Amino acid sequence: MESVSKHFVSLGPAGFVLKALLVAIAANLLLLGFIFFRRSYRKRFFRKRDARLLDIQRDWDRLISGAIPYESWRRKPFDLRIIETVVLDKLESADREEATRLLKFLRASRLIEKLIFEARQHTGWRKNRALVALGRTRAPEGIPALAEALRDRDLETRLAAIRGLGRMACPEAGDELLNSLMEVGLQVPALPLQSALVQCCSERPRMLLKFLQNSEMPVRQIIGRVMGEVAVPSLGNDLLPFVQDEEAELRAAAARALPCCDANLALEALTDLVNDPVWFVRLRAVVSLGKVADPATVPPLLRCLRDPNRLIRLRSAEAILKIKKGQAEIFHQVLAAKDKYALHAYLTALDNNGFQEMLREEITRHGGFSEATKSALLQALRIGNLHDDRSEKVKETALARAAGAP
Amino acid sequence: MILRLLAISNQTLLYYYLLCNFSYLLMLIIAFRTSIAHHRNLQSFKLAWIKEAPLAPPISIIVPAHNEEKSICISIQSLLTLQYPELELIVVNDGSTDGTLSALSERFRLRPIRAVYVSQIQSAPVRRIYRSEADPRLMVLDKESAGSKSDAINAGVNAAKCPYICVVDADSVLEDDALLRIMVPVLADPGRVVCVGGIVRVVNGSAIRNGRIERIRLPRKSIEIIQVIEYLRAFLVAREAWASANMLMIVSGAFGVFKTDLVRKVGGYRSDAIGEDFELVVRLHRYLLDNREKYRIAFLPDPVCWTEAPSDLKSLGRQRSRWQKGLLDGLWRHRQMLFRTRYERTGCLALPYLWFFELFAPLIESLGIVSIMAAASLGILNRDFFIQFLLFGYAFATAISIGSVLQEELTYRRYTDWRDVARLVMYCFLEHFPYRQIQIYWRLQGMWQYLRGDHTWKTIKRTGLESFHTPPPAEDNATVSSVAKW
Questions:
Q1: Is the N or C terminus of chain B more exposed, i.e. has fewer CB atoms within 10 Å?
Q2: Cβ contact, residue pair A36, B426, below 8 Å
């Protein structure tokens, strides 16, 4: 050993380079050894897991029914983890009968209790994982643990609890979300909360009404948006007061929900809302009028075609096209309005939907138009512009100037 | 006097290397931690839930294309099959002189429409707008070329209808779930997250079928393998670490998601900027900090975009020169942000880092090499100093490269063949000589070109995505060479 060292010293600077090379090679080999070992270990692990998964799937019915004693796998963390994953995945796509059977199994095997324990006692990502898993079970007994986590100090945990309650997708979970929202205010980003509330309240949207009446901004705004997503026809009269609400978000939510209500009620309220001073309320109202798709919506939609907002003009045009009949008359009215922005929006929607040919045929076949009107309509459809006298005059003046006229 | 100057120069170089590599080591540690946290967070989240979420915001994918006739249809077809609940695809044909538009028109049955196009952000005139009859989500803008990718993207931003835009290069391939993954931070906090960057990986060597990555392999050429290591180090280490402290200064132009209205507010991409992606992100930081807004610019290492890396020295040199020019250009434009408390961490830490350790690196390193060579020729090179120089300059840097490969191995593991990993580790040792020195030259060249006012865009030779296709059709068996403008 000593002689090797002496040999290196005798090499001078080259010895150092040689030593560095040897160290590098050794480090390289060590690292590759580690990677190789890890890969082999993982390969073995996954092979073993797949084999076990296959066994478990084969005995699934016996396992669920309890024919295989729960204690036989509950004490084995490896099996326990596989079974938990399989049950949760199966629950996602299970029908009512299968879900009941799986839930019964979760309760009998005390897997639910384990998840509740983990959701309450663990910390960090383990707690978050347990919270979401608990939500995926859709077992009502998990709701209190999830509700507790809604008040956690950690944002990630609160988000996991929201996701969990969203996966529950039941009014009881929605109640917890809304109660915590009223109690502690908005402590999480709005979108995940809205998504969870939409999932929980779609079965019973009426539950939102009392919270909507008693809450203040910004909570009211969030509940309003959720209401917009989940409203059903039976809510008809209950939504009407919000058309006059002082908060624009609520008016927009009402506008969004109104197509689900009685058509006459909706039409009247939406016709008011298209005149709202706030652009996004008008936009919602226009989109909703499009959903109603009734010829009676044409006059307000034609007004909206001249809205100063580009999006509203475009949506109005799209809404108008949903009323398939009478497009030739509508196009005539669009031209009569002599608004090039309105015409452009209408033609854009027409092109987007590929209805240009249909309109051309309708104009040609129309019996109520004179030949001159038909020709004007077809020309406007072809060139996509209004016949503008002023622009003709401007052109003439420009030509005259170019020719040297005074 | 000269001896003293040489000694000072050598010592300065040593401390510079030390600082540079320690900062990279710190980034490596932070990136490891962030990666693990991200993986654990994903355990309580399923991507499939985004697909069924009623409130998932729609995305407009903008694909600028200039002379991409060979690969455009494959790319667009692959983008249209991406997993995401609602998306529109805007292809901007930026004055292509080949058959890009006709290829698109034939494949996707395009028909001209008279859509409302408001030029909110400045861009060259749009000649015509088309919509696909085969898939109405596809819109094609045919515009005049203004000679820059930024201009094409701006036209796409003007036409975008969705609240988020995703800019993707026409010669890149996104993985199926890339959009779902990249939207995770947006869905968690849409109010704050204004921009998310995904990882860009080198596709060379891998096999593609119908616009999808079929088999991932390491490229064969050394120059390409070294780029794989560089990309891993840049994305898995640097970007992940900077993003964790909300100081990410670059979101790759090849794949990133931005809030549409914010991009419009700041005026879109600058057509005259050389590194338009870098410049935009710095401008976003500036705008948001000027307006005292709470925001986050995030980076995720798992939404993957595969792109082709230059495979010859000349093209690589041009690319690196351009990157250096872009860096200098972006930093110079926003020099007022430096050390201003108003710009918080961005102005006091991230930008100074970029000036000192990225922009000046080739200058300082080349000066150091010259001074070491001078000291050696004068016979005054201290042996201890030289050992320290090698240790901190090269061994440390090698360790960091290996760290990034190790992170890839421990977390994302795209290279399943262990021989690929072995080659990657081996190249971590080899990349420092002579590649690193050549790169210094390219970067210095870039700076010199910028200072001389040479802002021209030199072409980079690419083989095109179609050359990675497997199995190749008989008539396309030969590798098709196309010269891409970008």
A1: N
A2: no
Query: Residue B116: inside a domain, yes or no?
Result: no
Counting the structural domains of chain B, the total is: 1
- The answer to whether residue A308 neighbours chain B at the CB level (below 8 Å) is no
Q: Across A202-206, B73-77, B227-231, B372-376, which has the greatest mean pLDDT?
A: B227-231
Structure tokens at B116: 């409302």
Q: What angle do CA A54, A57, A61 make, to 5 degrees?
A: 155
Is residue B477 pLDDT above 50, yes or no? no
Query: Where are the alpha helices (H) located in A293-338, listed in sequence order?
Result: 298-304, 310-322, 327-336
Min Cα–Cα distance to chain A from B34, Å: 13
Q: Rounded to whole angstroms, how far apart are CA atoms B197 and B250? A: 8
Token output for A43: 């390969």
What are the b/e assignments for B339-370, b being 16+ CB within 10 Å?
Answer: eeeebeebbbebbebbbebbbebbebbeebee
Task: For chain B, say whether A344 makes contact (Cβ under 8 Å).
Answer: yes
Tokens of residue B66, six digits:
């200039």
Each residue of A78-114: pLDDT tens digit?
Answer: 999 999 999 998 988 888 889 999 999 999 998 999 9
Instruction: Report which of B251, B371, B230 is spatially closest to residue B309, judged by C-alpha positions.
Output: B230
Q: Closest to B409 (Cβ–Cβ): which among A35, A195, A345? A: A35
> What confidence score (pLDDT) does residue A14 get?
65
Percent of chain B with pLDDT over 90: 58
Is the confidence at residue A393, as pLDDT, over 60? no
Contact list, A198 vs chain B (CB under 8 Å)? 54-55
Amino acid B484: pLDDT: 29
Average pLDDT, chain A: 83
Tell me which residue range forms the domain holding B441: 174-387+434-486
Nearest CA in chain A to B136: A352
Measure the CA–CA gap between B421 and B407, rounded to whole angstroms: 12
Work out how many CB contacts closer than 8 A connect A with B: 99
Minimum distance, in Å, between the CA of residue A124 and any CA atom of chain B: 9
For A313, name the nearest residue in chain B, comparing CA atoms only: B116
Instruction: Let me know if residue B364 belongs to a domain.
Output: yes
A120-129, B353-362, B379-388, range with the lowest pLDDT? B379-388
Which of the residue ranges A1-15, B226-240, B363-377 has the most confident prediction, judged by mean pLDDT? B226-240
In a domain, B91, yes or no: no
Q: In the predicted model, is pLDDT for residue A24 greater than 80?
A: no
Instruction: Give yes or no for residue B23 having a pLDDT over 60.
Output: yes
B192: chain A residues, CB-CB within 8 Å: 189
Residue B404, pLDDT score: 92
With beta carbons under 8 A apart, name residues in chain B contacting A313.
116
Of B40, B189, B395, which has the smallest distance from its Cβ to A189's Cβ?
A: B189
Dihedral, A222, A227, A229, A232 alpha carbons, nearest 10: 180
Residue A175's identity, in one-letter code, is D
Given pLDDT bands bounded at 50, 70 and 90, which one contains residue A321? confident
ipTM over 0.90: no
Q: How close A67 gets to chain B, by Cα (Å)?
A: 31
Contacts of B422 in chain A (CB under 8 A): 32, 35
Find all residues with CB under 8 Å of A306, minimum gap 6, and list them: A313, A337, A339, A341, A342
Asked whether A106 and B22 are in contact (CB, 8 A), the reply is no
State how far the Cα of B401 lies from the Cα of B229, in Å rounded to an integer: 7
B114/A347 Cβ within 8 A: yes
With beta carbons under 8 A apart, name residues in chain B contacting A194.
55
Q: Do B421 and A32 touch (CB under 8 A)?
A: yes
Contacts of B276 (CB under 8 A, 6+ apart): B148, B149, B150, B153, B253, B269, B270, B326
User: Looking at the domain assignment, is residue B154 inside a domain?
Assistant: no
Question: Residue B425 is nearest to which of A28, A38, A354, comparing CB atoms?
Answer: A28
Q: Does A244 touch chain B (CB under 8 A)?
A: no
